[in-house]
Amino acid sequence: MRFEIVTLFPEIAASLRLGLLGKAIEAGRVEVATSNPRDFTTDRHRSVDDAPYGGGSGMVMMPGPVVEALEALDAGRAGPTRRVLLTPQGRRFDQATAERFATLPCLTLVCGRYEGFDERIRGYVDEEVSLGDFVLLGGEVAALTVVEATARLLPEVVGNRRSTEEESHTTGLLEYPQYTRPVEFRGERVPEVLLSGHHGRIAHWRRREALRRTLERRPDLLATAPLSEEDRALLRELEREGT
Ligand code: ADE
């Protein structure tokens, strides 16, 4: 898969060249390209923003440099892409969106700085995505988040999908608690069932703990998580216990 980032700070892409994603990029299994609107300015000051028509505070990203940065990326790619604008006005990014993006051959992420975009830029993107109900200085950190969440679903990045299939949000529930060595750490022992080697009991304990954790921390997720009759019985039991 290919990721393209339109940003005034292309240096941020360097942080993607670490860890598993870095390995995939190095091996040519994942591509990351950037395009800088500053390279498509026409004035002496290389301006990418200007004062808003109608007055008011702050500066607005001009459409020309951003649209030309997008068109330059089109020229360097064979197939299609999907253009996504990072903005607090977009639809909230979530795991389902990451899974949808992971099916694409290319994703182009458009980052803004300053107070906002000239409205006409919106006509050049396919959708708008927000990380949440807060305002960042710019879209860069949001773009990195989208790349990471998407790339880790790719077989080119994580060899086996099993490790992503069981985890939080993919199952619609929060993940069960995990333990590794040592068996005892500062007086706290690993739950005995996990040492039992009894796969059926372990699976049952994990499902129950995933349900308990979701009930405690994110009860809103239970409304949409796929739950079996046994899950519902376990939830009733947990609710009676008052966890
Ligand atoms: N740019 C500024 N704030 C943002 C947010 N919350 N999500 C995505 N992009 C942004």
How would you describe this structure to a colleague?
With 243 residues, this protein is α/β, with parallel strands linked by helices. The chain is 31% helix and 16% strand. The chain has 7 helices and 10 strands. Strands 2-1-6-5-8 form a 5-stranded parallel beta sheet. Strands 3-4-7 form a 3-stranded mixed beta sheet, with no helix packed on it. α3 crosses α4. The model has no long low-confidence stretch (mean pLDDT 95).
Layout of helices and strands:
Blueprint: E1 2-6, H1 19-26, E2 31-35, E3 49-50, E4 60-61, H2 63-75, E5 82-92, H3 95-101, E6 106-110, E7 116-117, E8 127-130, H4 140-151, H5 162-165, E9 184-185, E10 188-189, H6 199-217, H7 229-241
Parallel strand pairs: 1-2, 1-6, 4-7, 5-6, 5-8
Antiparallel strand pairs: 3-4, 9-10
Bound molecules: adenine.
Search tags:
243 residues; Alpha/beta knot; Trp Operon Repressor, Chain A; 2 domains; five-stranded parallel β-sheet; elongated; binds adenine
Number of domains: 2
Unreliable residue runs: none
What compounds sit in this structure? adenine
| Helix percentage range | 25-40%
Beta strand count = 10
CATH architecture identity of the largest domain = 3-Layer(aba) Sandwich
CATH H-level homologous superfamily name of the largest domain: SPOUT methyltransferase, trefoil knot domain
Task: Report the major sheet.
Answer: 5 strands, parallel
Number of helices: 7
Gross geometry: elongated
Element string (H = helix, E = strand)? EHEEEHEHEEEHHEEHH
**Integer average pLDDT:** 95
Cross-sheet strand order for the largest sheet: 2-1-6-5-8
CATH-derived topology of the largest domain: Alpha/beta knot
* Alpha-beta content class: alpha/beta
Rg result: 23 Å
Distance between the termini: 43 Å
CATH class of the largest domain: Alpha Beta
Binned strand content: 15-25%
